[in-house]
Amino acid sequence: MTETESIAYDVVVLGAGPVGENVADRARAAGLSTAVVESELVGGECSYWACMPSKALLRPAIARADARRVPGLSAAVQGPLDASAVLAHRDWFTSDWKDDGQLAWLDGIGADFHRGHGRLAGPRTVTVDGPDGERKVLTARHAVAVCTGTRALLPGLPGIDQVKPWTSREATSAHAVPGRLIVVGGGVVAAEMATAWQALGSRVTLLVRGKGLLPRMEPFAGELVAEALAEAGADVRTGTSVTAVSREGSTVVALTDTGDRVEADEILFATGRAPRTDDLGLETVGLEPGGWIEVDDSLRVVGSDWLYAVGDVNHRALLTHQGKYQARIAGAAIAARATGVPVLETDPWGAHSATADHASVPQCVFTDPEAAAVGLSLAEAEQAGHRVRAVDVDMASVAGAGLYADGYRGKARMVVDLDREIVLGLTLVGPGVGELIHSATVAVVGQVPVDRLWHAVPSYPTVSEVWLRLLEAYRDA
């Protein structure tokens, strides 16, 4: 390994996913010289193995399902999906796993890019071991931002090393449809990938250790998604843990604690995420390698005046949109401190405080039906000590829902803080509800009083009229 002379920047960003890109963009917009370090593809997990490819796989499945619920159109869309066309379109969305366009974007904002594995080597110092065997030393005058994200977490099961299981990466980048697929897990990745591959022609068996799908949402969300998967042909088994796996020729075998033997062509483990912090040199700055990094609301590492941890690595909200939100906050805070702003705006809604990551996080699950939520569930609100009331509405009672899909099935729940008369959380399940969640996010983040929401009139006949039904149910309770 040959070492070059040290290169100084105002800001050094470790990780070039959406979070790192946004930190770099905000730092450059403030006039700070910025370096970005990445060992894989610029654009990160979201662009190549998560958000973009998964939604490219799911969109045809959901569009077909929606079309089949429209009288006059349903008969025209009864055939199977063209799997090869779907996979080719997925490849287009990932730029065939090439990052030329993302590199051009980094260059366009004026950030320097260094390809290689970056590690902290003491305060404000990063070493980059490049693919050519050259080591660069980067120093940061103001800040180093760790934006390295997470990786799939595999369980320590007997036989798992020999099976070569899918993780989220293989599930979103596979180039052939397996005839049979076992999906282990009950969270978002498991539910979405079961939906996608079942629609593409796999016979999916979903093995869920817990009581149901989507355990972090209201219970009815997972129940409705599981019902739809079963109706589509998937075998959904809850309360089932995998105890061992093996590969017999081309067949994967999973043994369960219920005594079942499940066979398939591939097996996907969607059983959690772990931070990519195990080989970052955290020990050189007094932090424990391999763990989540604790930060304050400006995303600065607790106990440091120069190190930031942004996105998944701080474990506040493992979602691309929330990571990008954090990146905008972190970039603003770094710039303010670098330019000597005497007092940062760190009040609950200040420019340098990621307050929305505490109790106002939105999420959409792109299953059929879609499930979307923001803020606190009823159980979370009660556990937090709030005095609340939940009101539920059958989405079929909304005129716009009946027009959207014949036999529309779905449910909405609004959780109201009775002391402050504001919405703490909203959960929606049903076709197309992902496009409704931002209005709920505005209401929750903005702490809009319920009596004021009453005057926000939804257009008729749209699915958004569910807001009126919820507010009526609350007032009439």
TrEMBL record:
Bridged cysteine pairs (disulfide): 46-51
What does the cofactor field's note say?
A: Binds 1 FAD per subunit.
GO process annotations (BP): 2-oxoglutarate metabolic process
Q: Which Gene3D superfamilies match?
A: 3.30.390.30, FAD/NAD(P)-binding domain (3.50.50.60)
Task: List all membrane-crossing ranges.
Answer: none
Q: Which InterPro entries match?
A: Class-I_Pyr_Nuc-Dis_Oxidored, FAD/NAD-bd_sf, FAD/NAD-binding_dom, FAD/NAD-linked_Rdtase_dimer_sf, Pyr_nuc-diS_OxRdtase, Pyr_nucl-diS_OxRdtase_dimer
Using the record's annotation, list all stretches that form the Pyridine nucleotide-disulphide oxidoreductase dimerisation domain.
Answer: 361-467
Sites binding NAD(+) sit at 185-192, 272
- Give me the residues that bind FAD, please: 55, 118, 312
Q: Which residues form the FAD/NAD(P)-binding domain?
A: 9-321
The cofactors named for this UniProt entry are: FAD
- Cite a single GO MF annotation: dihydrolipoyl dehydrogenase (NADH) activity
> Where on the tree of life does the source sit, at the highest rank?
Bacteria
Entry keyword set: FAD, Flavoprotein, NAD, Nucleotide-binding
Q: What is the similarity comment for this entry?
A: Belongs to the class-I pyridine nucleotide-disulfide oxidoreductase family.
Name this polypeptide is given: Pyridine nucleotide-disulfide oxidoreductase
